[in-house]
Amino acid sequence: MIAMRAQAIDTVTELFEDDPHVAVVLAEISVDRFQPAFAHDPSRAVNVGIMEQTMVGVAAGYALEGFHPVIHTITPFVAERALEQLKLDFGNQQLGVLVIGVGGSYDYGSEGTTHHSPGDVQALLTIPATQVLVPGAAAEVDRLVRDTYANERITYLRTQMITNRDARPVELGRLLVERRGSDATVIAVGPMLDRTLEATADMDVTVLYATTLNPFDAETLGHELTGDDVVTVEPFFAGTLAALVSEALRDRPTRLHFVGVPRAVIRDYGTPEQLDQLLGLDAPGIRRQIVSAIG
Predict the structure, then answer these.
(1) 140-150 pLDDT per residue, tens
(2) For a surface tag, which of 18, 48, 213, 294 has the fewest beta carbons within 10 Å of its beta carbon?
(3) pTM over 0.85
(4) Is 253 buried (19+), middle (13-18) or exposed (0-12) by CB count in 10 A?
(5) Interior CA angle at 82 toward 62 and 238, to 5°?
Protein backbone atom coordinates (compact mmCIF):
# COMPACT_ATOMS: atom_id res chain seq x y z
CA MET A 1 0.00 0.00 0.00
CA ILE A 2 1.40 3.40 -1.01
CA ALA A 3 1.61 5.82 1.90
CA MET A 4 -0.26 9.10 1.61
CA ARG A 5 2.92 11.10 2.17
CA ALA A 6 4.79 9.27 -0.60
CA GLN A 7 1.87 9.75 -2.99
CA ALA A 8 1.68 13.47 -2.24
CA ILE A 9 5.38 13.91 -3.02
CA ASP A 10 5.17 11.80 -6.19
CA THR A 11 2.17 13.77 -7.46
CA VAL A 12 3.71 17.16 -6.67
CA THR A 13 6.97 16.12 -8.37
CA GLU A 14 5.08 15.08 -11.48
CA LEU A 15 3.18 18.38 -11.53
CA PHE A 16 6.47 20.23 -10.97
CA GLU A 17 7.97 18.60 -14.05
CA ASP A 18 4.87 19.15 -16.20
CA ASP A 19 3.87 22.66 -15.09
CA PRO A 20 6.61 25.35 -15.11
CA HIS A 21 4.52 27.46 -12.73
CA VAL A 22 4.83 25.01 -9.81
CA ALA A 23 7.40 25.88 -7.12
CA VAL A 24 8.41 23.70 -4.17
CA VAL A 25 9.71 25.22 -0.94
CA LEU A 26 10.96 22.96 1.87
CA ALA A 27 12.33 23.41 5.37
CA GLU A 28 14.74 20.45 5.38
CA ILE A 29 12.03 17.80 5.77
CA SER A 30 11.76 15.43 2.75
CA VAL A 31 14.50 17.13 0.73
CA ASP A 32 15.77 13.68 -0.27
CA ARG A 33 12.31 12.66 -1.51
CA PHE A 34 12.05 15.79 -3.68
CA GLN A 35 15.46 15.33 -5.35
CA PRO A 36 13.93 14.76 -8.81
CA ALA A 37 12.37 18.23 -8.57
CA PHE A 38 15.64 19.85 -7.46
CA ALA A 39 17.43 18.15 -10.33
CA HIS A 40 14.77 19.13 -12.87
CA ASP A 41 14.75 22.88 -12.13
CA PRO A 42 16.60 24.22 -9.07
CA SER A 43 15.25 27.73 -9.73
CA ARG A 44 11.81 26.54 -8.60
CA ALA A 45 12.83 24.14 -5.82
CA VAL A 46 14.24 25.66 -2.63
CA ASN A 47 15.29 24.26 0.75
CA VAL A 48 15.53 27.05 3.33
CA GLY A 49 16.74 24.79 6.15
CA ILE A 50 14.98 24.36 9.48
CA MET A 51 13.14 27.70 9.24
CA GLU A 52 9.46 27.06 8.68
CA GLN A 53 8.41 30.72 8.88
CA THR A 54 10.98 31.54 6.21
CA MET A 55 9.67 28.67 4.10
CA VAL A 56 6.22 30.28 4.11
CA GLY A 57 7.63 33.72 3.28
CA VAL A 58 9.67 32.42 0.35
CA ALA A 59 6.63 30.53 -0.93
CA ALA A 60 4.61 33.76 -0.79
CA GLY A 61 7.29 35.43 -2.88
CA TYR A 62 6.85 32.75 -5.52
CA ALA A 63 3.08 33.26 -5.41
CA LEU A 64 3.49 37.00 -5.95
CA GLU A 65 5.53 36.21 -9.05
CA GLY A 66 2.76 34.07 -10.50
CA PHE A 67 3.85 30.61 -9.35
CA HIS A 68 1.82 27.87 -7.66
CA PRO A 69 3.87 27.22 -4.51
CA VAL A 70 3.80 23.95 -2.58
CA ILE A 71 5.23 23.67 0.94
CA HIS A 72 5.67 20.47 2.91
CA THR A 73 6.85 19.61 6.40
CA ILE A 74 5.82 17.92 9.64
CA THR A 75 2.36 19.16 10.61
CA PRO A 76 2.97 21.11 13.87
CA PHE A 77 5.90 22.95 12.28
CA VAL A 78 3.69 24.51 9.60
CA ALA A 79 0.14 24.53 10.98
CA GLU A 80 1.14 25.96 14.36
CA ARG A 81 4.71 27.24 14.31
CA ALA A 82 4.21 29.12 11.02
CA LEU A 83 0.52 29.96 11.47
CA GLU A 84 1.09 33.71 11.65
CA GLN A 85 3.14 33.68 8.45
CA LEU A 86 0.39 31.74 6.65
CA LYS A 87 -2.15 34.26 7.90
CA LEU A 88 -0.15 37.34 6.95
CA ASP A 89 1.71 36.26 3.83
CA PHE A 90 -1.05 34.22 2.21
CA GLY A 91 -4.35 34.89 3.98
CA ASN A 92 -4.13 38.67 4.18
CA GLN A 93 -2.71 38.93 0.65
CA GLN A 94 -5.20 36.40 -0.73
CA LEU A 95 -2.51 34.28 -2.34
CA GLY A 96 -2.63 30.59 -3.13
CA VAL A 97 -0.47 27.83 -1.66
CA LEU A 98 -0.73 24.08 -1.24
CA VAL A 99 0.37 23.14 2.28
CA ILE A 100 1.10 19.43 2.72
CA GLY A 101 1.38 18.33 6.33
CA VAL A 102 2.80 14.96 7.33
CA GLY A 103 2.41 13.20 10.66
CA GLY A 104 -1.06 14.42 11.61
CA SER A 105 -2.02 14.27 15.30
CA TYR A 106 0.63 11.89 16.68
CA ASP A 107 2.22 9.91 13.87
CA TYR A 108 5.50 10.95 15.46
CA GLY A 109 4.33 9.86 18.90
CA SER A 110 7.74 8.42 19.66
CA GLU A 111 9.20 11.95 19.48
CA GLY A 112 7.01 13.36 22.25
CA THR A 113 4.57 16.24 22.51
CA THR A 114 6.59 18.70 20.38
CA HIS A 115 5.68 16.57 17.36
CA HIS A 116 1.97 16.20 18.20
CA SER A 117 -0.55 18.22 16.19
CA PRO A 118 -4.18 17.29 16.90
CA GLY A 119 -5.03 21.00 16.74
CA ASP A 120 -3.74 21.63 13.21
CA VAL A 121 -7.05 21.77 11.36
CA GLN A 122 -8.69 23.96 13.98
CA ALA A 123 -5.75 26.36 13.87
CA LEU A 124 -5.73 26.69 10.08
CA LEU A 125 -9.49 27.18 9.91
CA THR A 126 -8.93 30.52 11.69
CA ILE A 127 -7.54 31.85 8.39
CA PRO A 128 -10.56 32.85 6.28
CA ALA A 129 -11.26 30.83 3.12
CA THR A 130 -8.66 28.16 3.89
CA GLN A 131 -9.53 24.91 2.15
CA VAL A 132 -8.92 21.79 4.28
CA LEU A 133 -8.52 18.31 2.80
CA VAL A 134 -8.17 15.11 4.82
CA PRO A 135 -7.83 12.14 2.45
CA GLY A 136 -7.92 8.58 3.70
CA ALA A 137 -5.87 6.78 1.03
CA ALA A 138 -3.03 7.46 -1.40
CA ALA A 139 -5.17 7.56 -4.55
CA GLU A 140 -7.37 10.17 -2.89
CA VAL A 141 -4.28 12.27 -2.18
CA ASP A 142 -3.36 12.18 -5.86
CA ARG A 143 -6.84 13.31 -6.93
CA LEU A 144 -7.09 16.11 -4.38
CA VAL A 145 -3.59 17.48 -5.05
CA ARG A 146 -4.29 17.65 -8.78
CA ASP A 147 -7.63 19.36 -8.18
CA THR A 148 -6.26 22.08 -5.90
CA TYR A 149 -2.58 22.85 -6.50
CA ALA A 150 -3.34 25.81 -8.78
CA ASN A 151 -6.60 27.05 -7.24
CA GLU A 152 -5.14 30.32 -5.87
CA ARG A 153 -6.32 29.52 -2.33
CA ILE A 154 -4.65 28.40 0.86
CA THR A 155 -5.20 24.65 0.72
CA TYR A 156 -4.13 22.39 3.57
CA LEU A 157 -3.78 18.70 2.76
CA ARG A 158 -3.34 16.51 5.84
CA THR A 159 -1.62 13.13 5.51
CA GLN A 160 -1.29 10.36 8.08
CA MET A 161 0.43 6.99 8.35
CA ILE A 162 -2.85 5.16 8.97
CA THR A 163 -4.98 4.78 5.85
CA ASN A 164 -8.18 3.13 4.77
CA ARG A 165 -7.78 -0.15 2.92
CA ASP A 166 -9.45 1.05 -0.28
CA ALA A 167 -9.58 4.48 -1.88
CA ARG A 168 -12.93 6.04 -2.70
CA PRO A 169 -13.87 8.11 -5.78
CA VAL A 170 -13.64 11.34 -3.82
CA GLU A 171 -14.76 14.66 -5.23
CA LEU A 172 -13.53 18.00 -4.02
CA GLY A 173 -16.13 19.55 -1.74
CA ARG A 174 -18.41 16.51 -1.57
CA LEU A 175 -19.42 14.01 1.09
CA LEU A 176 -19.72 10.42 -0.06
CA VAL A 177 -22.51 8.13 1.13
CA GLU A 178 -21.01 4.87 2.43
CA ARG A 179 -24.09 3.39 4.07
CA ARG A 180 -27.68 4.43 4.65
CA GLY A 181 -29.59 3.82 7.88
CA SER A 182 -32.40 5.35 9.90
CA ASP A 183 -31.31 5.87 13.52
CA ALA A 184 -28.49 8.43 13.26
CA THR A 185 -25.91 9.99 10.94
CA VAL A 186 -22.19 9.38 11.37
CA ILE A 187 -19.57 11.45 9.51
CA ALA A 188 -16.22 9.68 9.24
CA VAL A 189 -13.27 11.90 8.34
CA GLY A 190 -10.43 10.64 6.14
CA PRO A 191 -8.51 7.71 7.64
CA MET A 192 -11.23 7.10 10.25
CA LEU A 193 -13.60 5.59 7.69
CA ASP A 194 -12.64 1.90 7.83
CA ARG A 195 -12.73 1.74 11.60
CA THR A 196 -16.00 3.67 11.70
CA LEU A 197 -17.61 1.23 9.29
CA GLU A 198 -16.35 -1.63 11.45
CA ALA A 199 -17.59 0.05 14.62
CA THR A 200 -21.10 0.57 13.20
CA ALA A 201 -21.38 -2.67 11.18
CA ASP A 202 -24.51 -3.86 13.00
CA MET A 203 -25.98 -0.42 13.67
CA ASP A 204 -28.80 1.14 11.62
CA VAL A 205 -26.98 4.40 10.89
CA THR A 206 -26.07 6.43 7.84
CA VAL A 207 -22.30 6.75 7.36
CA LEU A 208 -20.95 9.65 5.32
CA TYR A 209 -17.31 9.98 4.26
CA ALA A 210 -15.66 13.41 4.45
CA THR A 211 -12.36 14.29 2.78
CA THR A 212 -13.09 17.97 2.10
CA LEU A 213 -13.82 19.72 5.39
CA ASN A 214 -13.85 23.29 4.17
CA PRO A 215 -15.85 24.10 2.14
CA PHE A 216 -18.18 21.68 3.91
CA ASP A 217 -20.83 19.83 1.91
CA ALA A 218 -23.96 21.03 3.69
CA GLU A 219 -26.18 20.01 0.77
CA THR A 220 -25.36 16.29 0.95
CA LEU A 221 -25.49 16.24 4.75
CA GLY A 222 -28.93 17.85 4.71
CA HIS A 223 -30.21 15.47 2.06
CA GLU A 224 -28.86 12.31 3.71
CA LEU A 225 -29.52 13.26 7.34
CA THR A 226 -31.27 10.48 9.28
CA GLY A 227 -32.33 10.53 12.89
CA ASP A 228 -31.85 13.32 15.38
CA ASP A 229 -28.23 12.50 16.26
CA VAL A 230 -25.12 13.39 14.24
CA VAL A 231 -21.75 11.94 15.25
CA THR A 232 -18.45 13.04 13.73
CA VAL A 233 -15.45 10.71 13.94
CA GLU A 234 -12.37 12.92 13.57
CA PRO A 235 -8.63 12.09 13.44
CA PHE A 236 -7.82 15.36 15.26
CA PHE A 237 -9.25 17.17 18.29
CA ALA A 238 -12.82 16.07 18.98
CA GLY A 239 -15.23 18.84 18.02
CA THR A 240 -13.00 20.46 15.40
CA LEU A 241 -15.92 20.17 12.97
CA ALA A 242 -18.45 21.58 15.42
CA ALA A 243 -18.83 24.99 13.77
CA LEU A 244 -18.93 23.60 10.23
CA VAL A 245 -21.54 20.93 11.02
CA SER A 246 -23.60 23.29 13.18
CA GLU A 247 -23.74 25.85 10.36
CA ALA A 248 -24.71 23.17 7.85
CA LEU A 249 -27.59 22.05 10.10
CA ARG A 250 -28.63 25.44 11.45
CA ASP A 251 -32.24 24.90 10.33
CA ARG A 252 -32.48 21.28 11.54
CA PRO A 253 -33.06 20.23 15.17
CA THR A 254 -30.21 17.79 15.84
CA ARG A 255 -27.98 16.59 18.66
CA LEU A 256 -24.27 16.75 17.82
CA HIS A 257 -21.65 14.36 19.24
CA PHE A 258 -17.93 14.39 18.54
CA VAL A 259 -15.48 11.47 18.62
CA GLY A 260 -11.83 12.40 18.22
CA VAL A 261 -8.55 13.07 19.97
CA PRO A 262 -9.25 14.18 23.57
CA ARG A 263 -8.44 17.82 24.28
CA ALA A 264 -5.58 17.12 26.63
CA VAL A 265 -1.79 16.94 26.46
CA ILE A 266 -0.86 13.42 25.40
CA ARG A 267 2.02 12.33 27.61
CA ASP A 268 2.21 8.75 26.38
CA TYR A 269 4.70 7.57 23.79
CA GLY A 270 3.95 4.95 21.15
CA THR A 271 2.97 4.15 17.60
CA PRO A 272 -0.10 5.77 16.05
CA GLU A 273 -1.95 2.47 16.44
CA GLN A 274 -1.03 2.24 20.13
CA LEU A 275 -2.10 5.81 20.82
CA ASP A 276 -5.35 5.34 18.90
CA GLN A 277 -6.18 2.36 21.09
CA LEU A 278 -5.22 4.24 24.24
CA LEU A 279 -7.38 7.24 23.29
CA GLY A 280 -10.40 5.25 22.14
CA LEU A 281 -9.94 5.85 18.42
CA ASP A 282 -9.65 2.24 17.30
CA ALA A 283 -12.82 0.48 16.11
CA PRO A 284 -13.88 -0.81 19.57
CA GLY A 285 -13.27 2.59 21.13
CA ILE A 286 -15.22 4.38 18.43
CA ARG A 287 -18.09 1.94 18.87
CA ARG A 288 -18.20 2.56 22.63
CA GLN A 289 -18.37 6.29 22.12
CA ILE A 290 -21.05 6.15 19.41
CA VAL A 291 -23.23 3.79 21.48
CA SER A 292 -22.78 6.06 24.49
CA ALA A 293 -23.76 9.09 22.42
CA ILE A 294 -26.84 7.78 20.64
CA GLY A 295 -27.94 4.98 22.98
Answers:
(1) 999 999 999 99
(2) 18
(3) yes
(4) exposed
(5) 125
